[in-house]
């Protein structure tokens, strides 16, 4: 039996203060709903119950906050993760930016909310979730991905109509799947994040039926990733696998190379990339496409290089809603335009520290079958970070919520399961 750092004597704590979801049913249900965010949010925003859909994640946040407060008062004080310290500085900076723009309160408050809201959950989860809870919650996320992937295949078979905004000019595809995420781009991001998780769970699993479930789910998600026709997600997925293979298992590079070459010559993929590298595409992109939007972000920052144009003023959902602006199609460009070089450095530092911590404390520290899950989780998170160079992935609530929740759960699991071994430099057996 492995000795784990997270094993602590909790007998002195009141029952409501003991760590883990098994000691608090309401918190357990709240976390299950949260890990199924895309399906729950879509269902609760249907007609007649839409008001519930607007507030349900706030209710989850309040439940986690109450449980965390009670456990904190009972003496439980989990240590902050490294990346959360960077996140704390970024949140403080965003608050300062909000108050500097208080003359436009709607833009200031909404801009702040969009930037930091889903980070707040990550500061509460270590109080509520224990290491042994993580595999169960990841199973919920994986099951959600299987359902969404299956729905994506159904949309492809039935040729679901796609809004014109998601089709390039003069380009005709059979359909672009989006499922409950309502955007092919977000569908691509979601499946790029969850496909490595499903593959790693399939390898790690010893139960035959669950293994078959994960394998089938991985096929569904990979097919939906393909049928989303989102080039940014394809590139992010491929680069994340390439980087992960270079770091952890270079023998996989040959397999990835063969798969990549075969995939490139599939007509659907080849045509999308052929259009991407055509002179006409670059001309149109420079006039009114991604290149133009990235340059516009620089222009917004140039007037105030250190602090940008202000939260909610450029490149994202808030600017589009309240100022008639356009999306930057690059979250880092959006951050640069809104909060300048200071904001971009703080935000980039937060993301890099998160990736480093996942690598150092989870993926590198893991052993045995757990190694597959740790590496798969790292690859999925890395895919989202890369994808944000070509899309505003973190502007969409389900993706932002699950990105931060998934990362935090992996760290809780990694520190709890492998922390002692990393500290001592060896596996300790009892």
Quick overview of this protein structure:
With 430 residues, the chain is an all-alpha fold. 69% of the residues lie in helices and 0% in strands.
Mean pLDDT across all residues, rounded?
87
Main beta-sheet strand count, sense and barrel state: none
Number of helices: 18
**Would you count the extended β strands for me?**
0
Indicate the low-confidence ranges by residue numbers.
Answer: 1-9, 11-17, 422-430
Topology as a string of helices (H) and strands (E) = HHHHHHHHHHHHHHHHHH
Radius of gyration over alpha carbons? Answer: 22 Å
Structural class: mainly alpha
Q: How many domain modules?
A: 1
Provide the β-strand percentage band: under 5%
Separation, N- and C-terminal Cα atoms: 5 Å
Helix content: 55-70%
Using the alpha-carbon principal axes, give the shape: globular
Keywords: Ligase, Membrane, Transmembrane, Transmembrane helix
Subcellular location: Membrane
GO molecular function: ligase activity
Protein name: O-antigen ligase
Layout of SSEs?
Elements: H1 25-35, H2 37-44, H3 50-73, H4 82-100, H5 105-116, H6 120-128, H7 134-157, H8 184-204, H9 208-227, H10 231-248, H11 253-264, H12 267-276, H13 279-288, H14 290-302, H15 317-322, H16 331-363, H17 370-387, H18 397-424
Helix pairs in contact: 1-3, 2-3, 3-6, 4-5, 4-16, 6-18, 7-8, 7-9, 7-18, 8-9, 8-10, 8-17, 10-17, 13-14, 14-16, 16-17, 16-18, 17-18
């Amino acid at each position: 039996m492995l000795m784990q750092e997270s094993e602590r004597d909790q007998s002195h704590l009141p029952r409501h203060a003991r760590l883990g979801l098994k000691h608090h049913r309401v918190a357990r249900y709240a976390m299950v709903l949260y890990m199924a965010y895309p399906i729950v949010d879509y269902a609760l925003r249907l007609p007649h119950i839409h008001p519930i859909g607007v507030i349900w994640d706030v209710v989850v946040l309040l439940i986690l906050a109450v449980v965390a407060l009670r456990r904190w008062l009972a003496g439980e004080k989990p240590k902050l993760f490294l990346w959360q310290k960077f996140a704390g500085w970024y949140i403080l900076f965003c608050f300062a930016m909000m108050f500097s723009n208080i003359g436009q309160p709607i833009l200031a408050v909404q801009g702040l909310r969009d930037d930091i809201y889903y980070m707040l959950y990550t500061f509460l989860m270590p109080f509520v979730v224990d290491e042994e809870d993580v595999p169960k919650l990841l199973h919920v996320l994986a099951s959600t991905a299987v359902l969404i992937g299956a729905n994506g295949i159904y949309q492809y078979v039935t040729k679901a109509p796609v809004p014109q905004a998601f089709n390039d000019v003069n380009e005709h595809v059979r359909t672009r799947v989006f499922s409950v995420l309502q955007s092919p781009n977000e569908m691509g991001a979601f499946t790029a994040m969850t496909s490595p998780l499903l593959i790693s769970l399939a390898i790690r699993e010893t139960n035959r039926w669950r293994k078959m479930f994960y394998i089938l789910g991985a096929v569904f998600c990979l097919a939906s990733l393909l049928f989303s026709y989102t080039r940014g997600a394809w590139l992010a997925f491929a680069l994340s696998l390439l980087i992960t293979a270079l770091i952890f298992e270079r023998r996989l590079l040959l397999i990835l190379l063969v798969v990549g070459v075969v995939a490139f010559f599939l007509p659907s993929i080849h045509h999308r990339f052929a259009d991407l590298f055509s002179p006409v595409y670059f001309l149109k992109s420079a006039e009114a496409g991604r290149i133009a939007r990235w340059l516009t972000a620089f222009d917004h920052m140039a007037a105030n290089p250190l602090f940008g144009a202000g939260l909610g003023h450029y490149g994202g959902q808030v600017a589009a809603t309240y100022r008639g602006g356009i999306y930057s199609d690059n979250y880092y460009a959006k951050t640069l335009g809104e909060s300048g070089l200071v904001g971009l450095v703080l935000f980039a530092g937060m993301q890099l520290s998160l990736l480093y911590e996942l690598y150092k404390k989870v993926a590198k520290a893991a052993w045995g079958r757990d190694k597959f899950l740790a590496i798969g989780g790292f690859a999925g998170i890395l895919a989202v970070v890369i994808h944000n160079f070509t899309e505003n992935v973190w502007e969409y609530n389900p993706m932002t919520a699950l990105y931060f929740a998934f990362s935090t759960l992996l760290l809780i699991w990694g520190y709890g399961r492998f922390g002692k071994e990393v500290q001592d430099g060896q596996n300790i057996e009892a």
